[in-house]
Small ribosomal subunit protein bS1
Amino acid sequence: MADQELQPSMSSSQENAAQPQEQPVSVSATQAESSAHDDFDWSIDKKHVSTYSPEEWERYEKTYEKTFRNIEENEIIKGTVVGLTDSDAIIHIGYKSDGLVSLNEFRDMPGLKVGDEVEVLVVEKEDRNGQLVLSRKQARLLRAWERIVEAYKTGEVITGTVTSKTKGGLIVDIHGMETFLPGSQIDVKPITDYDQFVGKTMEFKVVKINEAIKNAVVSHKALIESDIEQQRMEIISRLEKGQVLEGTIKNITDFGAFIDLGGVDGLLYITDISWGRISHPSEVLKLDQKINVVVLDFDDEKKRISLGYKQLMPHPWDTLPENIKEGARVKGKVVNIEDYGAFLEILPGVEGLVHVSEVSWASTPVNAKEFFKLGDEHEAVIVTLNREERKMSLSIKQLTPDPWENIEEKYPVDSRHKGIVKNLTPYGVFVELEPGIGGMIHISDLSWTKRYNHPSEYTKPGEEIEVVILNIDKQNRKLSLGHKQLEEDPWNTFETIFPVGSIHEGTVVKKDEKGALIQLQYGVEAFAPARQLKTEDDHTIQVDDVIEVMIQEFDRAEKRIVVSHTKVWEQRKHQEREAAHKEKKAEAEKTRKAVKNVQSKIEKATLGDLGVLAEIKEKMKQAEEENKQQKPDEGDKPAS
Protein backbone atom coordinates (compact mmCIF):
# COMPACT_ATOMS: atom_id res chain seq x y z
CA MET A 1 0.00 0.00 0.00
CA ALA A 2 1.42 3.42 -0.98
CA ASP A 3 2.18 5.99 1.65
CA GLN A 4 -0.74 8.38 2.30
CA GLU A 5 -0.08 12.11 1.84
CA LEU A 6 -2.12 14.53 3.93
CA GLN A 7 -3.41 17.65 2.17
CA PRO A 8 -4.67 20.06 4.94
CA SER A 9 -6.96 22.80 3.72
CA MET A 10 -5.86 26.41 4.05
CA SER A 11 -7.65 28.93 6.32
CA SER A 12 -9.33 31.99 4.87
CA SER A 13 -6.67 34.25 6.34
CA GLN A 14 -3.97 32.29 4.57
CA GLU A 15 -5.82 32.53 1.31
CA ASN A 16 -6.08 36.26 1.76
CA ALA A 17 -2.43 36.48 2.65
CA ALA A 18 -1.55 34.62 -0.50
CA GLN A 19 -3.32 37.25 -2.64
CA PRO A 20 -1.88 40.74 -3.26
CA GLN A 21 -3.32 43.51 -1.08
CA GLU A 22 -4.97 46.30 -2.93
CA GLN A 23 -5.78 48.43 0.16
CA PRO A 24 -3.75 49.19 3.34
CA VAL A 25 -4.27 46.93 6.23
CA SER A 26 -6.04 48.22 9.25
CA VAL A 27 -4.92 47.68 12.85
CA SER A 28 -7.83 45.37 13.50
CA ALA A 29 -6.83 43.24 10.57
CA THR A 30 -3.29 42.96 11.86
CA GLN A 31 -4.49 41.76 15.16
CA ALA A 32 -6.67 39.13 13.45
CA GLU A 33 -3.67 37.78 11.51
CA SER A 34 -1.59 37.57 14.63
CA SER A 35 -4.28 35.47 16.27
CA ALA A 36 -4.46 33.08 13.26
CA HIS A 37 -0.67 32.64 13.22
CA ASP A 38 -0.66 31.60 16.80
CA ASP A 39 -3.35 28.97 16.13
CA PHE A 40 -1.58 27.41 12.98
CA ASP A 41 -0.31 23.76 13.17
CA TRP A 42 3.36 24.19 12.45
CA SER A 43 3.90 20.38 12.21
CA ILE A 44 2.92 20.67 8.56
CA ASP A 45 6.15 20.85 6.48
CA LYS A 46 6.85 23.07 3.59
CA LYS A 47 5.39 20.49 1.12
CA HIS A 48 2.12 20.34 2.95
CA VAL A 49 2.83 16.77 4.16
CA SER A 50 2.34 15.72 7.70
CA THR A 51 4.88 13.48 9.47
CA TYR A 52 4.24 10.33 11.56
CA SER A 53 5.51 9.56 14.93
CA PRO A 54 7.91 6.54 15.22
CA GLU A 55 5.13 4.49 16.78
CA GLU A 56 2.80 5.28 13.88
CA TRP A 57 5.49 4.40 11.32
CA GLU A 58 6.11 1.01 12.93
CA ARG A 59 2.42 0.23 13.08
CA TYR A 60 1.80 1.23 9.47
CA GLU A 61 4.85 -0.77 8.22
CA LYS A 62 3.68 -3.98 9.91
CA THR A 63 0.23 -3.57 8.45
CA TYR A 64 1.78 -2.94 5.00
CA GLU A 65 4.15 -6.01 5.06
CA LYS A 66 1.31 -8.37 5.99
CA THR A 67 -0.30 -7.75 2.61
CA PHE A 68 2.72 -9.27 0.64
CA ARG A 69 4.42 -12.70 0.27
CA ASN A 70 8.07 -13.27 1.21
CA ILE A 71 9.99 -14.49 -1.87
CA GLU A 72 13.66 -15.38 -2.60
CA GLU A 73 15.64 -15.26 -5.80
CA ASN A 74 15.97 -18.62 -7.73
CA GLU A 75 12.76 -19.76 -6.04
CA ILE A 76 10.03 -21.47 -8.06
CA ILE A 77 6.65 -20.01 -7.17
CA LYS A 78 3.08 -20.16 -8.49
CA GLY A 79 1.65 -17.02 -10.04
CA THR A 80 -1.57 -15.89 -11.68
CA VAL A 81 -1.91 -14.34 -15.11
CA VAL A 82 -3.52 -10.95 -14.41
CA GLY A 83 -3.02 -9.43 -17.83
CA LEU A 84 -1.90 -10.11 -21.39
CA THR A 85 -0.24 -7.81 -23.90
CA ASP A 86 0.85 -8.44 -27.46
CA SER A 87 4.23 -9.73 -26.28
CA ASP A 88 4.07 -10.44 -22.55
CA ALA A 89 1.99 -11.94 -19.80
CA ILE A 90 1.60 -10.02 -16.54
CA ILE A 91 2.10 -12.41 -13.64
CA HIS A 92 0.99 -11.63 -10.09
CA ILE A 93 2.83 -13.63 -7.43
CA GLY A 94 1.57 -11.73 -4.37
CA TYR A 95 4.58 -9.42 -4.30
CA LYS A 96 4.50 -5.64 -4.08
CA SER A 97 4.93 -5.53 -7.85
CA ASP A 98 3.99 -7.78 -10.75
CA GLY A 99 6.36 -9.34 -13.28
CA LEU A 100 6.40 -9.60 -17.05
CA VAL A 101 7.09 -12.93 -18.82
CA SER A 102 7.48 -13.15 -22.61
CA LEU A 103 4.70 -15.03 -24.41
CA ASN A 104 7.45 -17.09 -26.14
CA GLU A 105 7.81 -18.97 -22.87
CA PHE A 106 4.15 -20.12 -23.11
CA ARG A 107 4.33 -21.74 -26.56
CA ASP A 108 3.32 -25.04 -24.96
CA MET A 109 0.14 -23.28 -23.63
CA PRO A 110 -1.57 -21.90 -26.74
CA GLY A 111 -4.81 -21.15 -24.84
CA LEU A 112 -3.20 -18.97 -22.16
CA LYS A 113 -5.74 -16.58 -20.58
CA VAL A 114 -6.14 -14.24 -17.62
CA GLY A 115 -6.66 -16.19 -14.43
CA ASP A 116 -4.45 -19.18 -15.37
CA GLU A 117 -1.96 -20.33 -12.76
CA VAL A 118 1.63 -20.95 -13.88
CA GLU A 119 4.95 -21.74 -12.22
CA VAL A 120 7.71 -19.17 -12.61
CA LEU A 121 11.26 -18.73 -11.31
CA VAL A 122 12.16 -15.56 -9.43
CA VAL A 123 15.25 -14.40 -11.32
CA GLU A 124 15.57 -11.03 -9.55
CA LYS A 125 13.31 -9.40 -6.99
CA GLU A 126 14.38 -6.03 -8.25
CA ASP A 127 16.56 -5.26 -11.23
CA ARG A 128 18.34 -1.97 -11.82
CA ASN A 129 15.05 -0.46 -12.95
CA GLY A 130 13.34 -1.67 -9.79
CA GLN A 131 11.28 -4.28 -11.64
CA LEU A 132 10.51 -7.89 -10.66
CA VAL A 133 12.14 -10.37 -13.11
CA LEU A 134 10.38 -13.73 -13.61
CA SER A 135 11.03 -16.73 -16.00
CA ARG A 136 8.66 -19.56 -16.79
CA LYS A 137 11.24 -21.26 -19.06
CA GLN A 138 13.83 -21.54 -16.30
CA ALA A 139 11.17 -22.77 -13.89
CA ARG A 140 10.19 -25.52 -16.35
CA LEU A 141 13.86 -26.52 -16.88
CA LEU A 142 14.56 -26.69 -13.17
CA ARG A 143 11.37 -28.74 -12.55
CA ALA A 144 12.27 -31.01 -15.47
CA TRP A 145 15.81 -31.57 -14.12
CA GLU A 146 14.40 -32.44 -10.68
CA ARG A 147 12.08 -35.02 -12.25
CA ILE A 148 14.91 -36.46 -14.39
CA VAL A 149 17.21 -36.81 -11.38
CA GLU A 150 14.43 -38.48 -9.42
CA ALA A 151 13.73 -40.87 -12.33
CA TYR A 152 17.44 -41.72 -12.51
CA LYS A 153 17.55 -42.55 -8.79
CA THR A 154 14.32 -44.57 -8.74
CA GLY A 155 14.63 -46.18 -12.20
CA GLU A 156 11.24 -44.76 -13.17
CA VAL A 157 10.27 -44.92 -16.85
CA ILE A 158 9.66 -41.45 -18.28
CA THR A 159 8.06 -40.25 -21.51
CA GLY A 160 9.71 -37.88 -23.96
CA THR A 161 9.50 -36.66 -27.54
CA VAL A 162 12.30 -36.97 -30.07
CA THR A 163 12.78 -33.42 -31.36
CA SER A 164 15.79 -33.69 -33.70
CA LYS A 165 18.76 -35.71 -34.92
CA THR A 166 22.31 -34.93 -33.83
CA LYS A 167 25.74 -36.42 -34.29
CA GLY A 168 25.74 -39.93 -32.85
CA GLY A 169 22.09 -40.01 -31.77
CA LEU A 170 18.88 -38.08 -31.10
CA ILE A 171 17.70 -35.15 -28.95
CA VAL A 172 14.75 -36.00 -26.68
CA ASP A 173 12.53 -33.39 -24.96
CA ILE A 174 11.56 -34.58 -21.46
CA HIS A 175 9.33 -32.16 -19.50
CA GLY A 176 10.76 -29.28 -21.53
CA MET A 177 14.42 -30.24 -21.09
CA GLU A 178 16.65 -31.62 -23.86
CA THR A 179 18.40 -34.96 -23.21
CA PHE A 180 20.66 -37.11 -25.40
CA LEU A 181 19.69 -40.53 -26.77
CA PRO A 182 22.81 -42.28 -28.23
CA GLY A 183 22.30 -44.26 -31.43
CA SER A 184 23.41 -47.43 -29.66
CA GLN A 185 20.62 -46.96 -27.08
CA ILE A 186 17.71 -46.64 -29.50
CA ASP A 187 17.08 -50.36 -30.05
CA VAL A 188 18.64 -53.75 -29.41
CA LYS A 189 19.39 -54.08 -33.13
CA PRO A 190 21.62 -51.61 -35.00
CA ILE A 191 19.81 -48.51 -36.30
CA THR A 192 21.10 -46.66 -39.36
CA ASP A 193 18.13 -44.36 -40.16
CA TYR A 194 17.67 -41.94 -37.23
CA ASP A 195 15.19 -39.72 -39.07
CA GLN A 196 12.38 -42.27 -38.66
CA PHE A 197 12.29 -41.52 -34.90
CA VAL A 198 12.11 -37.69 -35.11
CA GLY A 199 8.71 -36.47 -33.78
CA LYS A 200 7.90 -39.75 -32.04
CA THR A 201 6.89 -39.89 -28.37
CA MET A 202 8.57 -42.83 -26.65
CA GLU A 203 9.36 -44.18 -23.22
CA PHE A 204 12.88 -43.94 -21.86
CA LYS A 205 15.05 -44.77 -18.92
CA VAL A 206 17.59 -42.26 -17.56
CA VAL A 207 20.96 -44.04 -17.64
CA LYS A 208 23.37 -41.19 -16.89
CA ILE A 209 23.28 -37.67 -15.45
CA ASN A 210 25.78 -34.86 -14.97
CA GLU A 211 24.82 -32.59 -12.08
CA ALA A 212 27.50 -30.00 -12.90
CA ILE A 213 26.21 -29.15 -16.39
CA LYS A 214 22.68 -30.53 -15.90
CA ASN A 215 22.96 -33.00 -18.75
CA ALA A 216 21.25 -36.39 -19.01
CA VAL A 217 21.56 -39.48 -21.23
CA VAL A 218 18.48 -41.66 -21.79
CA SER A 219 17.96 -45.11 -23.29
CA HIS A 220 15.07 -46.80 -25.02
CA LYS A 221 17.09 -49.96 -25.57
CA ALA A 222 17.25 -50.58 -21.81
CA LEU A 223 13.45 -50.93 -21.70
CA ILE A 224 13.46 -53.36 -24.63
CA GLU A 225 16.22 -55.40 -23.02
CA SER A 226 14.25 -55.53 -19.80
CA ASP A 227 11.25 -56.97 -21.66
CA ILE A 228 13.46 -59.39 -23.57
CA GLU A 229 15.13 -60.44 -20.33
CA GLN A 230 11.78 -61.41 -18.86
CA GLN A 231 10.96 -63.45 -21.98
CA ARG A 232 14.46 -64.93 -21.90
CA MET A 233 14.16 -66.04 -18.31
CA GLU A 234 10.79 -67.60 -19.03
CA ILE A 235 12.13 -69.52 -22.06
CA ILE A 236 15.33 -70.60 -20.28
CA SER A 237 13.30 -71.90 -17.37
CA ARG A 238 11.62 -74.36 -19.78
CA LEU A 239 14.83 -75.43 -21.58
CA GLU A 240 16.26 -78.95 -21.40
CA LYS A 241 19.40 -80.45 -22.91
CA GLY A 242 18.58 -82.39 -26.04
CA GLN A 243 15.42 -80.40 -26.67
CA VAL A 244 14.79 -79.67 -30.36
CA LEU A 245 13.60 -76.14 -31.16
CA GLU A 246 12.79 -74.19 -34.27
CA GLY A 247 14.63 -70.93 -34.72
CA THR A 248 15.37 -68.19 -37.23
CA ILE A 249 18.90 -67.21 -38.21
CA LYS A 250 19.18 -63.52 -37.28
CA ASN A 251 22.95 -62.98 -37.60
CA ILE A 252 25.95 -64.82 -39.10
CA THR A 253 29.53 -64.25 -37.92
CA ASP A 254 32.90 -65.84 -38.59
CA PHE A 255 32.58 -68.05 -35.53
CA GLY A 256 28.95 -69.11 -35.85
CA ALA A 257 25.33 -67.99 -36.17
CA PHE A 258 22.83 -66.44 -33.73
CA ILE A 259 19.44 -68.14 -33.72
CA ASP A 260 16.26 -66.38 -32.54
CA LEU A 261 14.30 -68.97 -30.55
CA GLY A 262 11.29 -66.70 -30.09
CA GLY A 263 12.44 -63.98 -27.74
CA VAL A 264 15.79 -65.43 -26.75
CA ASP A 265 18.94 -65.96 -28.81
CA GLY A 266 21.11 -69.05 -28.93
CA LEU A 267 24.56 -69.45 -30.45
CA LEU A 268 25.27 -72.11 -33.05
CA TYR A 269 29.06 -72.48 -33.22
CA ILE A 270 30.67 -73.13 -36.60
CA THR A 271 31.93 -76.51 -35.35
CA ASP A 272 28.34 -77.59 -34.63
CA ILE A 273 26.95 -76.63 -38.04
CA SER A 274 28.35 -79.47 -40.16
CA TRP A 275 30.15 -82.77 -39.59
CA GLY A 276 32.54 -81.66 -42.31
CA ARG A 277 34.95 -78.74 -42.03
CA ILE A 278 33.65 -75.39 -43.28
CA SER A 279 35.53 -72.10 -43.40
CA HIS A 280 32.46 -69.89 -42.83
CA PRO A 281 28.88 -70.56 -41.61
CA SER A 282 27.49 -68.88 -44.74
CA GLU A 283 28.56 -71.95 -46.72
CA VAL A 284 25.64 -73.82 -45.09
CA LEU A 285 23.31 -71.22 -43.54
CA LYS A 286 21.50 -68.08 -44.77
CA LEU A 287 20.00 -65.08 -42.95
CA ASP A 288 16.31 -65.39 -41.96
CA GLN A 289 16.45 -69.14 -42.68
CA LYS A 290 14.31 -71.26 -40.36
CA ILE A 291 16.06 -74.38 -39.06
CA ASN A 292 15.64 -76.98 -36.34
CA VAL A 293 18.37 -77.00 -33.71
CA VAL A 294 19.07 -79.05 -30.61
CA VAL A 295 19.93 -77.56 -27.21
CA LEU A 296 23.45 -78.70 -26.34
CA ASP A 297 23.93 -76.68 -23.16
CA PHE A 298 22.69 -73.57 -21.38
CA ASP A 299 23.89 -71.45 -18.48
CA ASP A 300 21.27 -69.89 -16.19
CA GLU A 301 23.75 -67.42 -14.70
CA LYS A 302 25.45 -66.30 -17.90
CA LYS A 303 22.21 -66.76 -19.83
CA ARG A 304 23.96 -68.52 -22.71
CA ILE A 305 22.40 -71.16 -24.89
CA SER A 306 24.59 -73.42 -27.03
CA LEU A 307 22.85 -75.01 -30.01
CA GLY A 308 23.69 -77.79 -32.45
CA TYR A 309 22.64 -78.36 -36.05
CA LYS A 310 24.80 -81.24 -37.23
CA GLN A 311 23.70 -83.32 -34.21
CA LEU A 312 20.29 -83.77 -35.85
CA MET A 313 21.99 -85.65 -38.71
CA PRO A 314 23.73 -89.08 -38.56
CA HIS A 315 27.50 -89.02 -38.15
CA PRO A 316 29.30 -89.78 -41.46
CA TRP A 317 31.49 -92.38 -39.71
CA ASP A 318 28.36 -94.33 -38.84
CA THR A 319 27.37 -94.53 -42.50
CA LEU A 320 30.86 -95.05 -43.93
CA PRO A 321 30.71 -97.02 -47.24
CA GLU A 322 32.09 -100.55 -47.28
CA ASN A 323 34.63 -99.69 -50.01
CA ILE A 324 36.42 -97.42 -47.54
CA LYS A 325 38.87 -99.95 -46.11
CA GLU A 326 42.59 -100.53 -45.52
CA GLY A 327 44.59 -100.63 -48.75
CA ALA A 328 41.97 -98.71 -50.72
CA ARG A 329 42.96 -95.64 -52.73
CA VAL A 330 41.04 -92.46 -51.89
CA LYS A 331 41.09 -88.78 -52.78
CA GLY A 332 40.80 -86.07 -50.20
CA LYS A 333 40.98 -82.30 -49.70
CA VAL A 334 43.48 -80.76 -47.29
CA VAL A 335 41.40 -79.27 -44.44
CA ASN A 336 44.05 -78.87 -41.73
CA ILE A 337 47.84 -78.70 -41.62
CA GLU A 338 49.99 -79.38 -38.56
CA ASP A 339 53.75 -79.72 -38.04
CA TYR A 340 53.39 -83.49 -37.93
CA GLY A 341 51.26 -83.84 -41.07
CA ALA A 342 48.00 -82.92 -42.81
CA PHE A 343 44.36 -84.03 -42.56
CA LEU A 344 42.56 -85.00 -45.76
CA GLU A 345 38.75 -84.97 -45.84
CA ILE A 346 37.75 -87.91 -48.05
CA LEU A 347 34.03 -87.52 -47.19
CA PRO A 348 32.20 -84.70 -45.34
CA GLY A 349 33.09 -85.32 -41.72
CA VAL A 350 35.48 -88.20 -42.46
CA GLU A 351 39.16 -87.28 -42.27
CA GLY A 352 42.46 -89.14 -42.38
CA LEU A 353 45.96 -88.10 -41.31
CA VAL A 354 48.91 -88.13 -43.68
CA HIS A 355 51.94 -88.14 -41.38
CA VAL A 356 55.08 -86.40 -42.65
CA SER A 357 56.82 -89.79 -42.67
CA GLU A 358 54.22 -91.04 -45.17
CA VAL A 359 54.76 -88.30 -47.72
CA SER A 360 57.95 -89.55 -49.38
CA TRP A 361 60.23 -92.61 -49.33
CA ALA A 362 63.18 -90.25 -48.88
CA SER A 363 64.87 -90.21 -45.48
CA THR A 364 65.15 -86.43 -45.50
CA PRO A 365 62.41 -84.84 -43.34
CA VAL A 366 59.39 -83.23 -45.06
CA ASN A 367 58.03 -79.84 -43.96
CA ALA A 368 54.25 -80.36 -43.91
CA LYS A 369 53.45 -76.66 -44.15
CA GLU A 370 55.58 -76.35 -47.27
CA PHE A 371 54.37 -79.55 -48.95
CA PHE A 372 50.61 -79.19 -48.27
CA LYS A 373 48.29 -76.28 -49.07
CA LEU A 374 44.75 -75.86 -47.70
CA GLY A 375 42.15 -76.87 -50.26
CA ASP A 376 44.55 -78.94 -52.39
CA GLU A 377 43.47 -82.46 -53.35
CA HIS A 378 45.74 -85.48 -52.90
CA GLU A 379 45.42 -89.16 -53.63
CA ALA A 380 46.44 -91.52 -50.83
CA VAL A 381 46.28 -95.11 -49.63
CA ILE A 382 44.39 -96.04 -46.45
CA VAL A 383 46.98 -97.56 -44.12
CA THR A 384 44.88 -98.01 -40.95
CA LEU A 385 41.15 -97.61 -40.28
CA ASN A 386 39.34 -97.69 -36.93
CA ARG A 387 35.59 -97.14 -37.27
CA GLU A 388 34.94 -97.23 -33.52
CA GLU A 389 37.53 -94.57 -32.68
CA ARG A 390 36.80 -92.79 -35.98
CA LYS A 391 40.47 -92.61 -36.96
CA MET A 392 42.20 -93.16 -40.26
CA SER A 393 45.85 -92.93 -41.34
CA LEU A 394 46.79 -92.32 -44.97
CA SER A 395 49.96 -92.60 -47.02
CA ILE A 396 51.01 -90.82 -50.19
CA LYS A 397 54.37 -92.51 -50.63
CA GLN A 398 52.76 -95.99 -50.77
CA LEU A 399 51.18 -95.05 -54.09
CA THR A 400 54.64 -95.91 -55.55
CA PRO A 401 56.85 -98.99 -54.91
CA ASP A 402 59.34 -98.84 -52.05
CA PRO A 403 62.75 -98.12 -53.64
CA TRP A 404 64.53 -99.70 -50.66
CA GLU A 405 63.24 -103.19 -51.46
CA ASN A 406 66.11 -103.91 -53.90
CA ILE A 407 68.60 -101.35 -52.60
CA GLU A 408 71.54 -103.81 -52.49
CA GLU A 409 71.10 -104.67 -56.15
CA LYS A 410 70.82 -101.10 -57.42
CA TYR A 411 73.36 -99.49 -55.09
CA PRO A 412 75.90 -102.13 -54.00
CA VAL A 413 78.77 -101.21 -51.65
CA ASP A 414 81.80 -99.62 -53.45
CA SER A 415 79.66 -98.71 -56.47
CA ARG A 416 79.99 -95.18 -57.83
CA HIS A 417 77.02 -92.87 -58.48
CA LYS A 418 76.12 -89.23 -59.04
CA GLY A 419 73.64 -87.37 -56.85
CA ILE A 420 72.33 -83.91 -55.99
CA VAL A 421 73.34 -82.10 -52.79
CA LYS A 422 70.08 -81.56 -50.86
CA ASN A 423 71.19 -80.30 -47.49
CA LEU A 424 74.28 -79.35 -45.50
CA THR A 425 74.91 -79.81 -41.79
CA PRO A 426 78.01 -79.03 -39.70
CA TYR A 427 78.93 -82.70 -39.83
CA GLY A 428 78.16 -83.68 -43.42
CA VAL A 429 76.40 -83.46 -46.80
CA PHE A 430 73.03 -85.10 -47.62
CA VAL A 431 72.94 -86.35 -51.20
CA GLU A 432 69.86 -87.61 -53.06
CA LEU A 433 70.62 -90.34 -55.60
CA GLU A 434 66.97 -90.64 -56.72
CA PRO A 435 63.59 -89.77 -55.15
CA GLY A 436 63.42 -91.73 -51.92
CA ILE A 437 67.08 -92.83 -51.99
CA GLY A 438 69.80 -90.75 -50.41
CA GLY A 439 72.64 -90.79 -47.95
CA MET A 440 75.20 -88.68 -46.14
CA ILE A 441 78.85 -87.90 -46.84
CA HIS A 442 80.62 -87.27 -43.55
CA ILE A 443 82.71 -84.11 -43.56
CA SER A 444 85.84 -86.20 -43.03
CA ASP A 445 85.08 -88.15 -46.22
CA LEU A 446 85.16 -85.13 -48.53
CA SER A 447 88.95 -84.94 -49.00
CA TRP A 448 92.06 -86.97 -48.19
CA THR A 449 94.27 -83.94 -47.68
CA LYS A 450 92.11 -80.95 -46.69
CA ARG A 451 90.25 -80.47 -43.43
CA TYR A 452 87.00 -78.47 -43.73
CA ASN A 453 85.37 -76.57 -40.86
CA HIS A 454 82.01 -76.81 -42.65
CA PRO A 455 80.83 -78.67 -45.79
CA SER A 456 79.83 -75.32 -47.31
CA GLU A 457 83.56 -74.72 -47.90
CA TYR A 458 83.46 -77.58 -50.42
CA THR A 459 79.95 -77.69 -51.95
CA LYS A 460 76.45 -76.18 -51.76
CA PRO A 461 72.82 -77.40 -52.17
CA GLY A 462 71.79 -78.08 -55.74
CA GLU A 463 75.24 -79.06 -56.98
CA GLU A 464 75.94 -82.46 -58.51
CA ILE A 465 78.50 -84.61 -56.71
CA GLU A 466 79.98 -88.04 -57.34
CA VAL A 467 79.95 -90.50 -54.46
CA VAL A 468 80.93 -94.03 -53.49
CA ILE A 469 78.57 -96.31 -51.51
CA LEU A 470 80.40 -97.09 -48.25
CA ASN A 471 77.66 -98.83 -46.26
CA ILE A 472 73.93 -99.76 -46.48
CA ASP A 473 71.57 -99.67 -43.47
CA LYS A 474 68.39 -101.07 -45.00
CA GLN A 475 66.47 -101.28 -41.73
CA ASN A 476 66.93 -97.58 -40.96
CA ARG A 477 66.93 -96.63 -44.67
CA LYS A 478 70.33 -94.95 -44.55
CA LEU A 479 73.30 -94.94 -46.88
CA SER A 480 76.83 -93.98 -45.88
CA LEU A 481 78.53 -92.22 -48.77
CA GLY A 482 82.06 -91.11 -49.49
CA HIS A 483 83.64 -88.69 -51.92
CA LYS A 484 87.36 -88.87 -51.23
CA GLN A 485 87.16 -92.63 -51.75
CA LEU A 486 86.89 -91.96 -55.48
CA GLU A 487 90.72 -91.66 -55.35
CA GLU A 488 93.35 -93.83 -53.69
CA ASP A 489 94.61 -92.86 -50.26
CA PRO A 490 97.73 -90.73 -50.95
CA TRP A 491 98.97 -90.95 -47.36
CA ASN A 492 100.89 -94.14 -48.16
CA THR A 493 103.03 -92.07 -50.53
CA PHE A 494 103.12 -88.99 -48.29
CA GLU A 495 104.88 -91.04 -45.60
CA THR A 496 107.96 -91.33 -47.86
CA ILE A 497 107.76 -87.71 -49.07
CA PHE A 498 107.40 -86.14 -45.62
CA PRO A 499 109.60 -88.17 -43.23
CA VAL A 500 110.23 -86.81 -39.74
CA GLY A 501 113.15 -84.34 -39.75
CA SER A 502 112.80 -83.41 -43.42
CA ILE A 503 112.54 -79.73 -44.32
CA HIS A 504 109.96 -78.41 -46.80
CA GLU A 505 108.66 -75.11 -48.04
CA GLY A 506 105.05 -74.23 -47.27
CA THR A 507 102.49 -71.41 -47.35
CA VAL A 508 100.65 -70.12 -44.29
CA VAL A 509 96.92 -70.43 -45.16
CA LYS A 510 95.40 -69.83 -41.73
CA LYS A 511 96.59 -68.62 -38.34
CA ASP A 512 95.16 -68.23 -34.85
CA GLU A 513 96.38 -68.11 -31.26
CA LYS A 514 96.95 -71.88 -31.23
CA GLY A 515 99.12 -71.97 -34.32
CA ALA A 516 99.06 -71.94 -38.10
CA LEU A 517 97.88 -74.17 -40.94
CA ILE A 518 100.69 -74.70 -43.47
CA GLN A 519 99.99 -75.99 -46.98
CA LEU A 520 102.81 -78.15 -48.29
CA GLN A 521 103.29 -79.56 -51.78
CA TYR A 522 100.64 -81.89 -53.24
CA GLY A 523 97.95 -79.96 -51.31
CA VAL A 524 98.89 -81.54 -47.99
CA GLU A 525 98.12 -79.43 -44.93
CA ALA A 526 100.26 -79.47 -41.78
CA PHE A 527 99.87 -77.79 -38.43
CA ALA A 528 102.54 -75.66 -36.75
CA PRO A 529 102.00 -74.91 -33.03
CA ALA A 530 102.36 -71.27 -32.05
CA ARG A 531 105.58 -71.91 -30.11
CA GLN A 532 107.12 -73.41 -33.26
CA LEU A 533 106.51 -70.26 -35.34
CA LYS A 534 109.24 -68.16 -33.69
CA THR A 535 111.59 -66.68 -36.29
CA GLU A 536 115.31 -66.04 -36.01
CA ASP A 537 114.86 -62.26 -36.17
CA ASP A 538 111.63 -62.24 -34.08
CA HIS A 539 109.59 -61.43 -37.20
CA THR A 540 105.83 -62.24 -36.89
CA ILE A 541 104.72 -64.75 -39.47
CA GLN A 542 101.54 -63.71 -41.36
CA VAL A 543 99.00 -65.50 -43.57
CA ASP A 544 100.30 -66.07 -47.14
CA ASP A 545 103.94 -66.01 -45.95
CA VAL A 546 106.11 -68.73 -47.52
CA ILE A 547 108.33 -70.35 -44.86
CA GLU A 548 110.50 -73.38 -44.35
CA VAL A 549 109.26 -75.99 -41.90
CA MET A 550 110.63 -79.20 -40.45
CA ILE A 551 108.43 -82.32 -40.14
CA GLN A 552 108.09 -83.03 -36.42
CA GLU A 553 105.30 -85.62 -36.49
CA PHE A 554 103.63 -87.73 -39.20
CA ASP A 555 100.49 -89.69 -38.16
CA ARG A 556 99.15 -91.69 -41.07
CA ALA A 557 96.16 -93.09 -39.19
CA GLU A 558 94.94 -89.68 -38.09
CA LYS A 559 96.06 -88.02 -41.35
CA ARG A 560 98.01 -85.45 -39.36
CA ILE A 561 101.39 -83.72 -39.87
CA VAL A 562 102.97 -81.43 -37.27
CA VAL A 563 105.74 -79.07 -38.42
CA SER A 564 108.09 -76.43 -36.94
CA HIS A 565 109.67 -73.34 -38.44
CA THR A 566 111.77 -72.63 -35.35
CA LYS A 567 113.57 -75.97 -35.59
CA VAL A 568 114.76 -75.11 -39.12
CA TRP A 569 116.85 -72.08 -38.18
CA GLU A 570 117.86 -73.55 -34.82
CA GLN A 571 119.27 -76.62 -36.63
CA ARG A 572 121.00 -74.41 -39.18
CA LYS A 573 122.70 -72.38 -36.46
CA HIS A 574 123.76 -75.55 -34.69
CA GLN A 575 125.28 -76.91 -37.88
CA GLU A 576 127.17 -73.66 -38.47
CA ARG A 577 128.61 -73.75 -34.94
CA GLU A 578 129.63 -77.38 -35.37
CA ALA A 579 131.35 -76.66 -38.68
CA ALA A 580 133.35 -73.77 -37.15
CA HIS A 581 134.35 -76.00 -34.27
CA LYS A 582 135.62 -78.73 -36.59
CA GLU A 583 137.61 -76.22 -38.61
CA LYS A 584 139.39 -74.86 -35.54
CA LYS A 585 140.06 -78.35 -34.27
CA ALA A 586 141.71 -79.33 -37.59
CA GLU A 587 143.91 -76.25 -37.57
CA ALA A 588 145.09 -77.00 -34.00
CA GLU A 589 145.92 -80.58 -34.96
CA LYS A 590 147.91 -79.34 -37.90
CA THR A 591 149.90 -76.97 -35.68
CA ARG A 592 150.57 -79.69 -33.14
CA LYS A 593 152.00 -81.97 -35.80
CA ALA A 594 154.24 -79.20 -37.14
CA VAL A 595 155.68 -78.50 -33.70
CA LYS A 596 156.37 -82.15 -33.12
CA ASN A 597 158.18 -82.36 -36.42
CA VAL A 598 160.39 -79.39 -35.58
CA GLN A 599 161.26 -80.75 -32.17
CA SER A 600 162.39 -84.00 -33.63
CA LYS A 601 164.93 -82.23 -35.89
CA ILE A 602 166.51 -80.06 -33.22
CA GLU A 603 169.42 -81.70 -31.47
CA LYS A 604 170.36 -78.80 -29.32
CA ALA A 605 168.31 -76.02 -28.15
CA THR A 606 169.44 -72.42 -28.36
CA LEU A 607 168.16 -69.33 -26.70
CA GLY A 608 166.57 -68.22 -29.97
CA ASP A 609 165.13 -71.70 -30.50
CA LEU A 610 163.70 -71.64 -27.01
CA GLY A 611 161.95 -68.37 -27.79
CA VAL A 612 160.39 -69.83 -30.91
CA LEU A 613 159.40 -72.92 -28.99
CA ALA A 614 157.75 -70.86 -26.27
CA GLU A 615 155.77 -69.01 -28.91
CA ILE A 616 154.57 -72.29 -30.41
CA LYS A 617 153.60 -73.63 -27.00
CA GLU A 618 151.58 -70.52 -26.31
CA LYS A 619 149.63 -71.03 -29.54
CA MET A 620 148.99 -74.65 -28.62
CA LYS A 621 147.75 -73.61 -25.20
CA GLN A 622 145.31 -71.14 -26.73
CA ALA A 623 144.08 -73.83 -29.14
CA GLU A 624 143.47 -76.21 -26.24
CA GLU A 625 141.48 -73.57 -24.35
CA GLU A 626 139.35 -72.87 -27.38
CA ASN A 627 138.79 -76.59 -27.77
CA LYS A 628 137.53 -76.82 -24.20
CA GLN A 629 135.10 -73.98 -24.80
CA GLN A 630 133.67 -75.77 -27.84
CA LYS A 631 133.06 -79.09 -26.03
CA PRO A 632 129.67 -78.12 -24.37
CA ASP A 633 128.17 -77.38 -27.83
CA GLU A 634 128.84 -80.92 -28.93
CA GLY A 635 125.69 -82.04 -26.97
CA ASP A 636 123.35 -79.88 -29.16
CA LYS A 637 121.73 -82.07 -31.72
CA PRO A 638 118.62 -81.41 -33.97
CA ALA A 639 115.33 -82.64 -32.54
CA SER A 640 113.78 -85.60 -34.25
